[in-house]
Amino acid sequence: MRYEDDFFELLRKIKNHENFAFTRFSDGELFIMQNKELNLRKESVVVGDIVYNFGYDEEDHKHFDPVKHQFLKDALLDAYTYKKDNYFVGGICSNCTCASMEHKDWMQEQYGNMDKNYMTTNLLVNSNYEIFMSQMLPEIKKRELVIVCNERATFPDKDLKIKKHFKVGKNCIVNDWHLIEEISNWIADNNIEDYLFLFSASSLSEVLIHQLYKKYDNNTYIDIGTTMNKSLGLSLKRDYLKSYWESGFFSPDIFRKCEY
Asked: Residue 247 and residue 13: Cα distance in Å, rounded?
């Protein structure tokens, strides 16, 4: 399957209530798995020994310290290499200019035997964002939802059928691991089945999806990243979001296609 084919396969599953998991391993997850320091802050971004002169809004701030946070690196590698029916791993790219293209060989080596049914790319953003908004989001709005996202979310989109909001706070990738047990217990205690779980919690999303799908594969778990920030009342500062939502703003991201 190609980029669009994979997207429409996930869309078909949502429409038909066929449960699956979709994880996304973008540049942040890649750098952590490579054991590089990652520090996203207001004034700059640190990746290993390199400092970039741009920053992120407070809700996106995060810090992975290889000395202190090996548990995150190990958990991401476990989530990335996990194999199970309908557990989709988005990450490897061989077509555009995203970070995973440069590290494609390393990512393939880590993943092991390639399963074309379940290895895919970063399906929901960039050139696929328009069809995410026009075709997948309307289907998401038909479902009972559990959302794991920033505590600052205000949920202005009243069409979302949110049954539960699990909140994440500052540097959730290392500070909110209690959610693994908390969400797991909530699913078990309430006999939750056929719900759609949406995750917008940075690298913690991959850890949660992996752990929950291993135990409760009768629900659907999707890492939505920043794709639904408008509906959640969160920042629209990512370039692909600004290209879609802001008149007169252009970024080439809106034309980028990740393909393996």
From this structure: 33
Q: Give residue 2's pLDDT.
A: 60
Distance, CA of 158 to CA of 66 (rounded, Å) = 41
Domain boundaries, the chain: 3-255
**What is the per-residue pLDDT for 42?**
79
CA distance 1 to 37: 34
Helix, strand, coil abundance in the chain, percent, nearest 5: 40, 15, 45
Amino acid making up residue 183: I
**Whole-angstrom Cα distance, residue 145 to residue 43?**
35
Q: What angle do CA 200, 203, 206 make, to 5 degrees?
A: 80
> Cβ(202)–Cβ(172) under 8 Å?
yes
Beta-strand ranges (E) seen in 151-238 are 162-168, 196-199, 220-223
Q: Check: CB of residue 240 under 8 Å from CB of residue 124.
A: no
- Model confidence, pTM: 0.93
Residue 237 burial (10 A CB sphere; 0-12, 13-18, 19+): middle
CB contact at 8 A, 191 and 163:
no
**What order do you get walking across the sheet with 45-47 strand by strand?**
50-52, 45-47, 38-40, 62-64
What Å distances lie between residue 50 and 37, 72, 104, 241, CA to CA? Answer: 10, 21, 20, 26
pLDDT at 1: 46
Q: pLDDT digit string (tens) for 202-225? A: 999 999 999 999 999 999 999 999
Tokens of 79: 């989530």
